[in-house]
Amino acid sequence: MTRCAALILAGGAGSRLGADIPKQYLLLQGVPILRHTLNIFLDHPDIEIIKVVIGADDRPFYEKAIGDLALNQPVIGGASRQDSARIGLEAMVKDDPDYVLIHDAARPFVDPTIIDRVLAALKSSPAAIPGIAVFDTLKSSTGVPPVVNDTLARANLWRAQTPQGFLYSNILNAYRSYKGPNLTDDSAIAEFAGLPVTLVAGREDNFKITTADDMRRAEYMTQNTIGDFRVGNGFDVHAFGDGNHVVLCGVRIDHTQGLIGHSDADVAMHAITDALLGAISGGDIGTHFPPSEKRWKDATSSVFLKHAADMVSKRGGIISNVDVTIICERPKVAPHRNAMQKSLAQILTINSDRVSVKATTTEKMGSTGRGECIAAQASAAVRFG
What we know:
This protein is an alpha/beta fold. It has twelve helices and 19 strands. 30% of the residues lie in helices and 28% in strands.
């Protein structure tokens, strides 16, 4: 029986995107790009072995991205893509697959039919890659700003994509024997070794996320593949009591009083927790964390919020955004808003721009206006595919 392996290259820094972390760990609709990519190969019935090559300093990002996926230990890559591919292939020696598909982690929209076409071509060819025929007119240029100096013939030109498939022993030997300068893809190594490379049809959607424009395109595509939206609302209020600080959205704020509650009385986080539970018809915070239970006394409310987020994930949902309004006369929320957004985003594992924290007063009216309590109202949107 033919054994097929997938080698996912996730060791790049993605500097052209200008993000704070490698691009393969950025979130698309709340899910890391790498995980989107891995899910496609994990779900393919012909892929038996998966190895992921990561950067030397990226282990924390990787662990967070894969979560509970059943994968082997990652392989630490080299200084270039070519080095990482060679190291990854060497790490498969004990597995000894018949075929190997080498794929860029930052191509999260590869279609399973592309994988099928590459594997089918390998039955009669030692190498096969997906590609897109070039139809645009091609120009070469020099100078800054660039000036056209030639028009190139586009006939018989293709844009190469991944996964690029090979007979495992052939591509491993090709990498071992190649001593030239770095090449931009794996099929170039195969060509150097004299292996014929078959082209199969790729797809425009199978693009590699490289620039900020690519990221915006990817976000648009994922937004339009998830159609079932559910919204939940939450409300909570806690009275002032003795103390010297309050906790709002996980941020400690010095104050002349504290908030009374069985847990840390983070009224904003409690409201968001109820909003997420409401979106999935999951009861309320008191159902999951009864104040009558001593183990929740003085508990950090991030435990409650993380529980709600995990429930959303286990039911197949993705948190689209959360919005909380804190209602009080004091303390002032505005100086702490950015820290609150970052705190919530980290707990929910979504981007900060999907978290909104606002504040208002009741113009001195009612219990909040008299400074007797702080209230919070929250909404949350959850997508289901």
